[in-house]
């Protein structure tokens, strides 16, 4: 038996860091939403008790280091599953990009194997299991649009933002999330207005969404990767309504309301950056469950 599961990327419309915790993580408050750029995961039931991962991508490990492998191993361990799975990942989300590609693969494996192995776990149970793999995995289990707090694993769903285009541009270098958090200096940084973003989404106010975008991690990544600041400038110049770096970076996204403007920003950026995408926000949760 085989099933296909979609693993969409996320962007952070707002990302604030409130403080450093005893366990080495940081307390965050962020608004996350899924976008229509997704990896495709094929899951095949194996009668033998083993997990095999294949991704055909030289930046992605095909062993225990793969977050999709870790998701399957954790489910097996918790529920004493004696069956196995062949996991084939078609990578479309850029790697180490701030788009939660690995986390979304892990989340998709949790949702898919729950069905394939007949575990009958609730989506909330899967999200709790996901948190053991990584801070972004819980959100990715649900998808949609949410406020994420704690170290990112506490999820409160909110309505979707009004429809618009999201143009993504990924500079060639990847970024390590751990290094970005390590280099964050919380003194004297400007905090984004996360509650303003929540109001803007609730009011379906596109202009207010554009005005409320903010990410404290830009203060670190832009310092070490000046090309990120350059791409932000280019995106604004080509006419994006608002621009921000997603997560720990280095991917920059721009919001655009109108189709004609979307083509202009997309084509303009193609001259500067190899990996450029124009996608829609997915917003709704139902599409994943
Ligand atoms: C930047 C974001 O992607 C925004 O959504 C997330 O905060 C990071 O989520 P993630 O990649 O799933 O992160 P994890 O795999 O849990 O952690 C990677 C490393 O990032 C740091 N980390 C992560 C999350 C957090 N709230 N505080 C942290 O300090 C820790 O050093 C950790 O060792
Ligand atoms: N399934 C996977 N897909 C991509 N990378 C993976 C996967 N499993 C493990 N990795 C490893 O994780 C690292 C980070 O990859 P990923 O694409 O998840 O980063 P990210 O988008 O910056 O994550 P986040 O936004 O959650 O911080 C990669 O360098 C890779 O070695």
Automatic annotation (TrEMBL):
It comes from Gottfriedia endophytica. One of its GO terms (molecular function) is ATP binding. Its EC number is 2.7.1.148. Catalyzes the phosphorylation of the position 2 hydroxy group of 4-diphosphocytidyl-2C-methyl-D-erythritol. NCBIfam families: ispE, PRK14608.1. The active site is at residues 10, 136. Residues 197-273 form the GHMP kinase C-terminal domain. GO terms for biological process: isopentenyl diphosphate biosynthetic process, methylerythritol 4-phosphate pathway; terpenoid biosynthetic process. This is 4-diphosphocytidyl-2-C-methyl-D-erythritol kinase. InterPro entries: GHMP_kinase_C_dom, GHMP_kinase_C_sf, GHMP_kinase_N_dom, IspE, Ribosomal_Su5_D2-typ_SF, Ribsml_uS5_D2-typ_fold_subgr. Pfam families: GHMP_kinases_C, GHMP_kinases_N. The gene is ispE. Belongs to the GHMP kinase family. IspE subfamily.
């Amino acid at each position: 038996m085989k099933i296909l599961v979609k693993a969409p990327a996320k962007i952070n419309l707002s990302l604030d860091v409130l403080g450093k915790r005893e366990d080495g993580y940081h307390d965050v408050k962020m608004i996350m939403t899924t976008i229509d750029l997704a990896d495709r995961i094929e899951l095949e039931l194996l009668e033998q008790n083993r997990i095999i991962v294949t991704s055909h991508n030289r930046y992605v490990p095909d062993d225990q280091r793969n977050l999709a492998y870790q998701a399957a191993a954790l489910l097996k361990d918790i529920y004493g599953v004696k069956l196995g799975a062949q996991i084939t990942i078609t990578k479309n989300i850029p790697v180490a990009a701030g788009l939660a590609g690995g986390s979304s693969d892990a989340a998709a494996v949790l949702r898919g194997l729950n069905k394939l192995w007949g575990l009958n776990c609730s989506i909330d149970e899967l999200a709790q299991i996901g948190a053991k793999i990584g801070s972004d995995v819980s959100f990715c289990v649900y998808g949609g649009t949410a406020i994420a707090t704690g170290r990112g694993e506490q999820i409160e769903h909110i309505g979707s933002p009004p429809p618009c285009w999201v143009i993504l541009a990924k500079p060639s270098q990847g970024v390590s999330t751990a290094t970005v958090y390590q280099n964050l200096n919380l003194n004297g940084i400007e905090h984004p207005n996360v509650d303003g973003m929540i109001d803007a989404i609730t009011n379906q106010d596109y202009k207010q969404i554009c005005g409320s975008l903010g990410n404290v991690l830009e203060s670190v990544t832009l310092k070490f990767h000046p090309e990120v600041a350059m791409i932000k400038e280019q995106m604004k110049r080509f006419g994006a309504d608002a621009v921000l770096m997603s997560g720990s970076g280095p991917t920059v996204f721009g919001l655009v309301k109108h189709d004609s403007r979307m083509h202009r920003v997309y084509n303009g950026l193609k001259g500067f950056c190899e990996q450029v995408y124009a996608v829609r926000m997915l917003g709704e949760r139902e599409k994943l469950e």
